[in-house]
């Protein structure tokens, strides 16, 4: 059972690493200081989840994923295209990434059990909901 939990948590970890990478790319291209500050806050939230998930995987005796995997490559390509369009498109991509992350947590939370399930449901999912809502609000203010 611990191996399945490690696999599920590593899937979440790869998604969080991808989010950090995508925010980093977007922040580097945003000139509006207020907007950049909000994105930096979201990136920090994802970085904290990366650290928490890594720690949990190690406690279970697993080896944490080191990269974002295929989703990270996709996110870079999409973000690269958004960069050509501007801030609004970049925010759209980030919000879609938040949608994806939220759906992953909601779909796979029950793939883990006991303390790991509590960790996902009580820590990761609520924090993901907050960053998702923050990006949704930001997107609405830009459109």
From TrEMBL:
InterPro entries: DUF2383 (IPR019052), Ferritin-like (IPR012347), Ferritin-like_SF (IPR009078). Residues 5-107 form the DUF2383 domain. Coiled coil: none annotated. Gene3D superfamilies: 1.20.1260.10. SUPFAM superfamilies: Ferritin-like. This is DUF2383 domain-containing protein. It comes from Hyalangium minutum.
């Amino acid at each position: 059972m611990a191996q399945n939990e490690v696999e599920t948590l590593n899937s979440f970890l790869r998604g969080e690493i991808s989010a950090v990478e995508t925010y980093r790319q977007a922040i580097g291209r945003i000139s509006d200081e207020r907007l950049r500050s909000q994105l930096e806050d979201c990136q920090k939230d994802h970085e904290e989840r990366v650290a928490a998930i890594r720690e949990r995987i190690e406690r279970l005796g697993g080896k944490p994923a080191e990269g974002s995997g295929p989703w990270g490559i996709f996110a870079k390509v999409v973000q690269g295209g958004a960069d050509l369009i501007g801030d609004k498109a970049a925010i759209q991509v980030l919000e879609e990434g938040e949608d994806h992350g939220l759906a992953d947590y909601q779909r796979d939370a029950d793939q883990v059990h006991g303390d790991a399930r509590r960790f996902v449901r009580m820590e990761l999912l609520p924090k993901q909901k907050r960053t998702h809502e923050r990006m949704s609000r930001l997107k609405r203010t830009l459109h």
